[in-house]
Amino acid sequence: MGSLYRLAFPEELRMTRIFENTALLEEFRGRSPEGQTPPEISRVYGGETLFPGPYGDRPYTYCSLVCSLDGRIAFEDDPVSPLLARNNRLDPEGGILNFWSLMMQRTHADACLTAARTLAAEPEATLHICDDKLIRQRMDHLGKELEHPLNIVVTRSAREVPLDHKIFHSLEEGLHVLLVTSQAGRRRLEERDGRRFRFIEIASRDDEHRIPELRQAYMFPEDNACPVLVVGTLDENIDTGLFLWILRRAGIGRLFVEAPQYMYHLIEESLLDEFFVDFSLLFAGGGIIAGMGHAFGSKDHPHSELISVAVHRQNFLYTRHRMVYDATTSP
Ligand SMILES: NC(=O)c1ccc[n+]([C@@H]2O[C@H](COP(=O)([O-])OP(=O)(O)OC[C@H]3O[C@@H](n4cnc5c(N)ncnc54)[C@H](OP(=O)(O)O)[C@@H]3O)[C@@H](O)[C@H]2O)c1
Questions:
Q1: Is the dihedral of CA 176, 181, 187, 188 positive or negative?
Q2: How many structural domains are present in the chain?
C-alpha cells in the first residue's frame, strides 16, 4: 500500500495580498514561538503568516475550507473537495495555489484531524505534505519533529471508519496515524478485529502517566497495530476538552482541523481559534455545505475578524480569519 501523492509546486507561484490586519499579526508575532514566517511561505502567501503557540491546556486550533462562491464545500456528482479549486477552468494556477495553501496550513501543524465520513468520501485523502520545499521549511524553520503532521481520525461511534483507507497504511512513508474514539467505538472496533488495534484508554486527567505510552503507540507502532486513543468515560461521545488536553500533553502545539462537521463542533465549544476559507469563484449548487445541523442563534452566534486576504487574478480569494466568541456591539 502507500504511495502518498507528491508534487513540486512551481517556483513562480504567488498570490497577491490585498489586506492584512497588521495589529493582529503583530500580536501573533509576540505569541509565536518562531517569531518569523518561513521565507518560502511569506513569498507565496504574499506576506507575514505567523501562527501563535499553544495554550496551557490545549493546542492552538485552526481549520480550513475550500468553498465555491455559493458556499458549497463539494460538488454533488463528485464530492472530492479539491475539485472545487482544481476544476476552476478560468484560473488553473489559482487552483494550484489553493492546494499550496492547504499544504502551508499542514506545514505549521503538529497534528491534522480528519473524520471518518470525509475519509469515506475521499479515498485519496491523507493529511501529508506533498512538496519537499515545504517539508524543509517545516523542519528547518518551524522545528517540527515529523516530516508530516500526525494524522488524527476522530469518530464517536466507529461505525463508518474505512480501515482499508490509505491513511492507515502509509507508515513506511512517514505518515503516523491515531484513531480517536469513545467507549462504544472501542467495543465496535474490537468486534471488527481487535488484533488490528492497540487501545490506549485515558479516562481523565488523572491518567496523565499514560501519555508516554500513547506517544510510543503512534510514533513506533508495533506489529502494524493501529493506535486507538479511547477518550473519557462517556459511552457514545468524546470529552473534547479532555481530548485536546491529552494532545497538548503529548506535545501537539498546533492542531489543524480538516473535517467540516468537527470544525463546527469546536466552534460550538468556543475551541476553534482560526478559520481559513479559500473561495473558488464558481458555483457548485446542491446540498453539500459545512455546518449542517449546527445552527447558531440570530442573537447569539460566533463572529470572525479578517487576518489577511489575498487574490489570484480575478478568480480566487484566499481569506484567513480569527474567531471571536464574545462579540459585543460597537458603540
Ligand atoms: N471543502 C473542503 O475544504 C472540505 C474539506 C474536508 C471535507 N470536505 C467534504 O465534506 C464532506 C464530509 O463532511 P461532513 O461534515 O459530512 O463529514 P465530517 O467532517 O467527516 O464529519 C463527520 C464525521 O465526524 C465524526 N464526528 C462528528 N462529531 C464528532 C465529535 N464530536 N467527536 C468525534 N467525532 C465526531 C463523525 O463520526 P461519528 O458520528 O462516529 O462521531 C463522522 O465520521 C465530504 O464530501 C468531503 O469531501 C470538504
A1: negative
A2: 1
Q: What is the amino acid identity at position 238? A: I
Gap between the Cα atoms of 228 and 304, Å rounded: 34
Q: What is the pLDDT of residues 142-193, one digit of tens each?
A: 999 999 999 999 999 999 899 999 999 999 999 999 999 999 999 999 999 8
**Residue 69 placed within a domain:** no
- The answer, yes or no, to whether any atom of ligand 1 lies below 6 A from the CB of 115, is yes
Per the structure, the complete domain to which residue 91 belongs is given by 16-63+82-282+302-324
Of all protein residues, the one whose alpha carbon is nearest to atom 24 of ligand 1 is 115
Q: Hunting for cell 505510552 — which residue is that?
A: 213
Neighbours of 290 (CB within 10 A): 18
Indicate whether 2 pLDDT > 80. no
Say if strands 316-324 and 303-312 run parallel, antiparallel, or are unpaired. antiparallel
Decide: 253 and 53 in contact? Cβ < 8 Å: yes
Q: Pairing relation of β-strands 177-181 and 226-231?
A: parallel
- How many Å apart are CA 223 and CA 23, to the nearest integer? 51
Separation between Cα atoms, residue 321 and residue 29, nearest integer Å: 16
pLDDT band at residue 124, thresholds of 50, 70 and 90? Answer: confident
Asked whether residue 101 is assigned to any structural domain, the reply reads yes
Rounded to whole angstroms, how far apart are CA atoms 62 and 30? 18
For 139-178, give one letter per residue: b (16+ CB within 10 A) or e: eebbebeebbbbbbbbbbebeebebebbbbbbbebebbbb
What three-state secondary structure class fits 142?
coil
CATH number, domain with residue 23: 3.40.430.10
Pocket test for ligand 1, best of 68, 86, 156 (most atoms within 8 A of CB): 156
Shortest-distance atom of ligand 1 to CA 158: 40
Q: Is residue 71 part of a domain?
A: no
| Residue 57: inside a domain | yes
Q: Please state the pTM of the whole predicted model.
A: 0.96
**Rounded to the nearest whole angstrom, what is the distance from the C-alpha of residue 181 to the centroid of ligand 1?**
14
Side chain identity, residue 234: L
